[in-house]
Design a protein that fits this description.
Blueprint: E1 6-15, E2 18-26, E3 39-45, E4 52-59, E5 76-84, E6 90-99, E7 109-116, E8 151-154, E9 160-164, E10 169-174, E11 185-188, E12 194-198, E13 205-207, E14 213-222, E15 225-232, E16 237-243, E17 251-257, E18 269-273, E19 276-283, E20 295-301
Antiparallel strand pairs: 1-2, 2-3, 3-4, 5-6, 6-7, 8-9, 9-10, 10-13, 11-12, 14-15, 15-16, 16-17, 18-19, 19-20
Length: 317
Amino acid sequence: MGKIIYTADPATMVVNDTVYLYTTHDEQHVDGNDYRMYDYRLWTSTDMMTWENKGAVFRYSDFDWARGDSKTGNAYAHHVIHRKDESGVSRYYFYATVEGGQSEGKFGFAIGVAVSDNPEGPFEDPRGMPMILLEDTAEYKDHTWRNIDPAVFIDNDGRAYLYWGNQQLWWVELEADLIHLKGEIYTLDSDGTMQNRDTSQVQIHAVNTLPNFEEAPYVSQHNGLYYLVYAAGFPESIAYATSASATGPWQYRGIIMEPLPGTTTIHPAMFDFKDNTYLAYHNADLPDGGSYRRSVAVDTVHFNEDGTIKPIIRTSK
């Protein structure tokens, strides 16, 4: 058996006949009591049975404004999406939660974006600063880790939305370039780095109708219905809501996975691949696993006739 790699916070992207599974990377010691995360890993599959390890494709330090040290890089949850530009060239957008980039050097988590023409990277920061800062959500919450767990969904009409949050769900529409908030005003310096950011015309929406919302929102569409899965309560379970629109309103539907042994977090991602729907999440099932040494798993999702989701049956293979 090779060296165990502990992974968490799955984000999935399907392009053609391949599933791209991006994960965070837990590097905590077996007796550690905090997150120790520096990079993001990629795993690919064409059959959901065999997976190829592509290694680390992005690091927290790829954002010049991010901060880390020997204890942790604070490379928290992320999301990756694919879109072709106006000339038909594929572009891949990596949204990630890291610490740093705040006004006046304050401590706090931010959401940034990096772009590549290859799903394996390298990814480069086109903004030179975060997309979401503490100041953007200060009227709602005051804890410094509130802006985590980004998830982006591109609707059928091409409009794109960013969802995120801890102890509060927020969403905002993105510009067509997928790297700016809709209505965001700014100037550029000689290096192309954003300056003089003005969000007075940006509409950030707060959702307060999801019971026990903790974090990890993930929006997808299946059979014409929009689904929002999320981590609920603490220790976390997986709950979900449905809507006729990517912007809600969301109807709460219940719990599909109860808290798991050995870990307080769970982080869902739901996706379609080759006529099946799957749910990725993390557990603590690997040897010496725990809340800071997690492992990503995938199970099949089954729907009732009315579109509700049956409780997830966990499998070991």
